[in-house]
Amino acid sequence: MENLIEITELTKKYEGKTVLENVSFDIPSGRIVGLLGPNGAGKTTIIKILAGVINDYKGKVLINHEPPGIYTKSIVSYLPDKTYFSNWMKVSDTINLFDDFYEDFDRAKAMKLLKRLNIDEKLKITKLSKGIYEKLQLVIVMSRKARVYILDEPLGGVDPASRDVILDTILTNYSEDSSVILSTQLIQDVERVFDKVIMIKDKEIFINEDVDTLRLKYGKSVDEIFREVFRCS
């Protein structure tokens, strides 16, 4: 199986402080990967490097055999952990923006997902609850025909009843030749969709395993393993 993402000896420092040290892993196509670790572990740094937002690092990062840049931005669909739409926009304006900006944006799919998630395209962004806003961002990101989908904390403000709908949206809207990287703290709610888990501890990769292998090895759920590794209460 072809690797969509290859990271080799990635090291990143902020103002002299090392946040990632010699991190290496591969992600093949057709996988949903959980990128896990406590706050400050470096998950968002990895995500921003893959998204082309951060470019001053040491090591090798390849997406579809190319370093992050103009080409990779055309095949990576990125959902950041911060809101990024302007307050003047309506839901329909966000659809128009992505339709204009990305050649691979599937407007019909976006409209279908809006309807499924009960999001009114006439509503102003400022009138949306945090949960609805996050659903909207996910709709926009998953409506691109990308090779890599990178989702940074996509479920933080979403009520438990909506999480399954969102996970199903992710599961049914990526293809076998693409992959999803999902960073989250809500492991128990999300782990059912993971094919593979990468856990970061002390600036390094601590676990990099297929989920089935991991559960067999530890005899526990991914959430239980995470809590044990990081001594979460």
Key features of this structure:
single chain; 233 residues; alpha/beta; Rossmann fold; six-stranded mixed β-sheet; three-stranded antiparallel β-sheet; 9 strands; globular; nucleotide-binding; ATP-binding
Question: TL;DR of this structure?
Answer:
By secondary structure, the protein is α/β, with parallel strands linked by helices.
CATH architecture: 3-Layer(aba) Sandwich
Question: Counting H and I runs of at least 4 residues, what is the number of helices?
Answer: 9
- As residue ranges, the low-confidence spans are none
At the first level of CATH, what is the class? Alpha Beta
Name of the CATH homologous superfamily: P-loop containing nucleotide triphosphate hydrolases
The main β sheet shows up as:
6 strands, mixed
Tally of DSSP β-strands: 9
Task: Name the strands of the widest sheet in spatial order.
Answer: 5-6-7-3-8-9
Tell me the helix content: 25-40%
How many angstroms separate the termini? 38 Å
The count of domains is 1
Task: Please explain how this structure is put together.
This protein is α/β, with parallel strands linked by helices and 233 residues long. It has a single domain (3-230), classed as Rossmann fold. 34% of the residues lie in helices and 27% in strands. The protein has nine helices and nine strands. The protein has a six-stranded mixed β-sheet with strand order 5-6-7-3-8-9, with helices on both faces. Strands 2-1-4 form a three-stranded antiparallel β-sheet, with helices on one face. β6, α6 and β7 form a beta-alpha-beta unit. The radius of gyration is 18 Å and the shape is globular. The model has no long low-confidence stretch (mean pLDDT 91).
